[in-house]
Write a structure and sequence with these properties.
98 residues, mainly alpha
Length: 98
C-alpha cells in the first residue's frame, strides 16, 4: 500500500515534523501498515481505528521505542483483529453465530 500525500501530511502535522523527512516517514508509515495488517487483518487507512494504530506505531518507530508498541496497544490491536475475524465469519456464512 502506498502512502498518500494526504496521510503523510496528516502524520507530519500530528508529530509536528518538517518536510525534510518525507522519505523516512513514508517508509515508517508503510512498514507500520504492513505490520498491522499482519496482526489485525486487511484494513485500509479509511478505517479510523486502523489509521490511529498506524500513526501510533509509526510514532513509536520514529522515536526508537517500537519494542513498547505491541504491549501498550495490545487491546486495540486485538479489537481490530477480532472485528476482522467476525466480519470474515459473517461474510463467509451469513447464518453463522459467534
Amino acid at each position: 500500500m502506498s502512502i498518500t500525500n494526504e496521510i503523510l501530511i496528516e502524520f507530519k502535522e500530528r508529530m509536528r515534523l518538517e518536510d525534510d523527512e518525507d522519505s523516512n516517514l513514508t517508509r515508517i508509515l508503510s512498514a507500520s501498515i504492513v505490520a498491522l495488517k499482519n496482526n489485525c487483518g486487511e484494513y485500509d487507512m479509511e478505517n479510523e481505528s486502523f489509521k490511529e494504530l498506524v500513526f501510533e506505531r509509526s510514532r513509536y518507530a520514529y522515536n526508537d521505542a517500537l519494542e513498547y508498541f505491541n504491549t501498550n496497544f495490545l487491546s486495540q490491536i486485538n479489537s481490530l483483529a477480532v472485528a476482522k475475524a467476525l466480519e470474515e465469519i459473517q461474510v463467509g456464512d451469513p447464518n453463522a453465530t459467534v
